[in-house]
Structure formats: structure tokens, C-alpha cells
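User: Quick sanity check before I run a bigger batch. Here is a single chain. Can you write out its predicted 3D structure?
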Amino acid sequence: MTTNITGSLTGFAAVYGPIDSIEPDYEHLRTVSNSMVPFGNHVGTSITEIGPDRAVVEIPAQPHVLNHMSTVHAGALFTAADIAGAAAFVGAAATRLGTVTQLVLRAATASYRKPAIGRIRAVARVDQHELHDILTVDRDARFELSGKALLLDDNDVVVAKFTFDYVCDVAADTTARV
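Assistant: Done. Predicted structure follows.
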């Protein structure tokens, strides 16, 4: 865990609490993550899955997420993709999450493909090669990390694609590794 001078937890450790580095509790990570973005709660997004390989966020089929064309608003689509990308990182980095001090979105691209109608799912993943460096570093370090999110309707039609560039700060892992 990362601590400050007073000994209290900081960074992601302060948010998620102690995490088993051998068998992370992904349901706990999902529950905590679901409450972290007030704007996501306002839109009505819900993280339905966090795991080591991906995260899934849903936008409900509700009138308040629609635009003037009666399709899901681009802002709601971006919100779901953004939350899914961050949640994908949380799941993928769960074994090292206690040493992550920050994850910041630096850039994003969006490609809207089809009208988004009904319930939409954002399925996100982070780059496993870049993640490997974050999981194995033995010193304080800053990394660049990329992620992708596909947004799908109930017929599994891709309605949008997003790419994300993050900056991730990691503190040295002071726990003994065997």
C-alpha cells in the first residue's frame, strides 16, 4: 500500500482499501468503482463487470440519455466509455492497485459508427503489453497506457469506438514479493 507521512492510505489504496494481490475481489472493485463518478451516476451508467481482462458499463434505455434525434447522446456514450476504460484498468491492475497513485486520462478519440438506440454496453480493455510494465516495476515510476472501448447495442452492433491514452503513476511496492 502507498502511505503518506501520517501513515494513512493514499491513491487508489485509499479508495479501494486493502486488495488481495493473489485473488482480488473483483465484485468489491466493481461496487466501489460504481460510486466513484458522480456524473456517471447522473447519466445512469452502471459498471456491470470488472475483471482482469475487461470491464463493461451499461447505459440504460432511458429518455434522459437521448438527444434530439432520439438516439443515445454522444456525451452519455463518452461517459460510459470513459468509465469502462478506467474500470478496465482497475481490474487489469488489481494485483498492484495498492501502489497506483493516479490514473489520468490524457487524450481520447471517438468514432461514432451507427445510431445508438436502446441499452448500450461499453466494453473496454487496456493494452496488456503496457500494463505488464506497470505490474512489474520495482520503483516509483510514471507510465503511459492505452485502452480501447467498443460500444454495442443489444444486437451486438458496434455503435461507437473509443481509444484512450492515460498517464499512470505507480509507487514502489514495499511489500516483499516471493
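The mean pLDDT is 91.

User: Great, the batch can go ahead then.
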